[in-house]
Amino acid sequence: MKGFLRLVARDLRLALRQGSDATIAVMFFVLCVVLFPFGVGPEANILARIAAGVIWVAALLASLLSLERLFLTDYEDGSLELLALSRIPMEAVVLAKTLAHWLVTGVPLIVAAPILALLLNMEAAGFGVLVLALAIGTPALSLIGSIGAALTLGARRGGVLLSLLILPLYIPVLIFGAGAIDAALNALSPRPHLLLLAGLLAAALPLAPLAGAAALRQALE
Amino acid sequence: MPVFSGTDLTCLRGDRLVFTGLDFRVESGGALLLLGPNGSGKSSLLRVMAGLLRPFRGRLAWDDAASEDDDQHGGRIHYVGHLDAVKPVLTALENLSFWASLGGAADPAGAAMAALERLGVPHIAGVPGRYLSAGQKRRLTLARVLAAPAPLWLLDEPTVALDRAAVRLLEGILAEHRAGGGMVALSTHADIALPGAAELHLDHFAPATGDDVDLDSDANGDGEAAA
């Protein structure tokens, strides 16, 4: 446990010193959403109608953007070998690195989302649910993504391969995440959507580190 | 007195047989010097010893208990490979303290500083990894084995990028480690004094020479220092 926290602390420190990953993810998220009014026109009704979906799709892509580097730098400089030999189980290494990744890239998305919702003229009724759905959904995105990041380690053009592998797996999160907001906007209960989203997170939490650890061991051979 | 040994090891990389029928044995205080031309499998053998690579055939044992599926094995070794694992944005001391703390050092920062001093580079403690020279990075990597205790050191060409003085320093550190009952397995192309080390010539285990090659040295070493 101590080693787990040390690894999270080290990854956070690395991210803060470099600063690029976190800002790139959130900047990409903002720009991606801002493009839509230019594309579909400034009609307020249409934007309000598609706001939930647009924000979720942009969040998926932004989360994907930095995933390639989740294990790559540690793999390239030999740190991953040493982590594999350390007393921390490989599953905990995956979980620690994913947690740090989510804190650095997922949390800023959650903070930026209401501002973008305002920009897209979403009704205020959806804001709370939007933040809640993203808070449950983005950790699930990071966890599912960690499997892909581990699997594509050492592959050429791993980033492209990663997108192809992971985006289909993101679909359930997208459906229930956007569904929760739509339900809230139509005066229905978002509860079932949020519960299903939480169910996805609960399933990914133990399964993704197991799969990720197996893939990392394979990559190190 | 721990003993680390391997029996009838065969290593397969891709579809290429690197070495086959290899036996080795290191006892407490002993050292194993891996020799052989490029590509003869020195690094592969060290990775097999570390548990990073599964032997295609054969068995590794720590005190006669199989070490392959033993979760404790990682805690007994220090592995220094070709990569330095130095993060460019962390200072030398931060890099080293992290590994020391994972290795179970009681006072990671103190142990890390002491290790840097032992390797003669206390002045790089506050320098970020990206400003270190190749030799300084190498010393920092070698300081890792001192910063946390482990009985078996696996060093893959530790002298690369080191100057003469640093090699002498390393020889002293290795002798000290062995005097304290530690074990060393290292590969090198350079001259490094390892008194009483058993030599293992990897090219003798190349598959072309067949499976039934005799060992030219029994990898036991006659230079057992007092534990």
UniProtKB/TrEMBL annotation, chain A:
Entry keyword set: Cell inner membrane, Cell membrane, Cytochrome c-type biogenesis, Membrane, Transmembrane, Transmembrane helix, Transport
Pfam families, alphabetized: CcmB
Family matches, as InterPro entries: Cyt_c_biogenesis_CcmB, Cyt_c_CcmB_bac
Recorded topology in the membrane: Multi-pass membrane protein
Transmembrane segments: 21-40, 46-67, 99-120, 126-153, 160-181, 193-216
Location in or out of the cell: Cell inner membrane
Domain of life (superkingdom): Bacteria
KW Amino-acid biosynthesis (keyword) present: no
Family recorded in the similarity comment: Belongs to the CcmB/CycW/HelB family.
PANTHER family: CYTOCHROME C BIOGENESIS B-RELATED, HEME EXPORTER PROTEIN B
Its biological purpose: Required for the export of heme to the periplasm for the biogenesis of c-type cytochromes.
Name assigned to this protein: Heme exporter protein B
TrEMBL record, chain B:
Keywords: ATP-binding, Cytochrome c-type biogenesis, Membrane, Nucleotide-binding, Translocase, Transport
Keyword Transferase: no
Source organism, top-level taxon: Bacteria
Gene3D superfamilies: P-loop containing nucleotide triphosphate hydrolases
Molecular function per GO: ATP binding
Keyword Repeat set for record: no
Segments traversing the membrane: none
Ranges of residues in domain ABC transporter: 4-227
PANTHER family, A to Z: ABC TRANSPORTER I FAMILY MEMBER 1 (PTHR43499:SF1)
Protein's name in the database: Heme ABC exporter ATP-binding protein CcmA
Organism this protein belongs to: Azospirillum oleiclasticum
Lineage: Bacteria, Pseudomonadati, Pseudomonadota, Alphaproteobacteria, Rhodospirillales
